[in-house]
């Protein structure tokens, strides 16, 4: 008996190690096999949630999105569509009897309807130019959709005809007479996005946003930039009417009757306004607003507009963080919104009468808010470094409201973790096979005493007695933020998978630490942020004795790519560098990028009349000091940081005799989006780091 008992105890001791041994480090194929949950929408009665799941095939090199449905309290997910293409952007019909969505199953993006009583999805109406977004009026009488068109075309069919003529013409030249002629990764070709209204009969439609403007706006918009009023009589929408949009952040909120006979400008703010959201009782319209024109990273405040009195109130005047996406409580007395804070995207409630706030969810990365009709539950999707997005809900009972002056301190607490319930488990089978670790927080005093925050990830199967190389990641923006997320392009778990410690510092300029901290990068690109990074690296190497101080590599993209280029000319402390879509020369960058307000704010004007900071913060000026082996990555369709920036960086490295390679993608933009391209990217990046970090 004693021997048997001893064997049982011995077996139990080894059970954890047995299961641990069955796990493995994540691969790029694992990451791209994850189902990507998005767009949850609660049914009108609050009993069901429809959502989209996007999956990718590495073999076929493409993605596919389908719709699923679950009970709002949790339960088995039911697949609703199985088309081998895009089915997404679901919307419940206001009576709750059907689900409408956008699909490309007939060649162009159109609105389809799937009845809950059974049967196949049917196209609601054929829009010649296709549909990019849509929304129902609350009473179900009208549907609004956005589409791209030529504003001087006679109708939508004429716009399609013009596109076909361009496609078949043997002349592919473009004659351009104004700025903002291309955006992000595509040419605009003189087309605009407009919003049309269609009655429930689907027999006609009309443009309610006429003019040579884009609605929704091309940039600095939100996830909800045209909405119906609760009574279905008006539409609020966002657009920029300035003459040179490439120089302007002046998005404004407008309203129009559903008839489309007139347009009224609701906001006169010269900075960015967006995301109009009507209160359920129709009394208010809430929207987000910045204060400073020309600055795309200014703080978003929550503005409350009283539709009866015309009074406006800044509800978040004392809240030194951004207001993200919003949703109203059913009683029109509270607004729930997301906010970036210390490496997380949190959910906060605000009482519109007292201005007091309450933390709702303070862990991980949360978005896509939906509220139950009775106001008792908030639904959202949540991700963490070790888990892709899944749908969760949280109880809204017993929220603890405090003055705005105290809310940031309260947000540091791990709030409501007990009341948060996971509803979907799309990737459970995949995740159980992988050894993934949570992020760890650290803080340090920078060169001038400023407190700076960072995140650290230990490698899979971490052994504190061993020494590990360090991969030092630098985020873009520069007004961005490393956060507790499952990033598909810069996935911290995948960077750590070969056996590396990963460190990520939210240097000055980052979001989530107050607007003053965010402002500190502007006009100082290679100054304070660079010192934060180097001071933080010193702190990490001293604090964590499991890091091999002789084996450190760094990688970054966009502004992070700029910083890698800057590092290459200012220090030789890294064994290897990776720069993705980085800025090498600020003057030539200005002349080829699309959003001119960005460099003009960051460097104090254009480079022709104000060249000083463009030259001061150009890595090209320090190319003669390049010595560190560097991998350069850039893509042809990147119009934000044009491909010549990468070519120039690679040329400089080669001329300086520095070991270097250029990975060029002719079919990608600022991001790598195709599965096989992503696999090549990861294998090349990790291969480059492995080649040099151990030398």
Give the secondary structure arrangement, pairings included.
Layout: H1 2-22, H2 28-33, E1 36-42, E2 48-57, E3 62-71, E4 78-79, E5 87-92, E6 98-103, E7 110-115, E8 122-125, E9 133-136, E10 142-149, H3 156-168, E11 182-183, E12 186-187, E13 192-199, E14 206-207, E15 226-228, E16 234-240, E17 251-257, E18 264-265, E19 273-278, E20 284-289, E21 301-306, E22 312-314, E23 326-328, E24 334-341, E25 344-351, E26 357-361, E27 365-371, E28 377-384, E29 387-395, H4 404-411, E30 420-422, H5 428-431, E31 440-445, E32 451-457, E33 468-474, H6 492-496, E34 501-506, H7 515-519, H8 528-543, E35 547-557, H9 559-568, E36 576-580, H10 586-592, H11 597-602, H12 612-616, E37 630-635, H13 644-655, E38 660-665, H14 675-693
Parallel strand pairs: 33-34, 33-35, 35-36, 36-37, 37-38
Antiparallel strand pairs: 1-2, 2-3, 3-4, 5-6, 6-7, 7-8, 9-10, 10-13, 11-12, 13-14, 15-16, 16-17, 17-18, 19-20, 20-21, 21-22, 23-24, 24-25, 25-26, 27-28, 28-29, 29-30, 31-32, 32-34
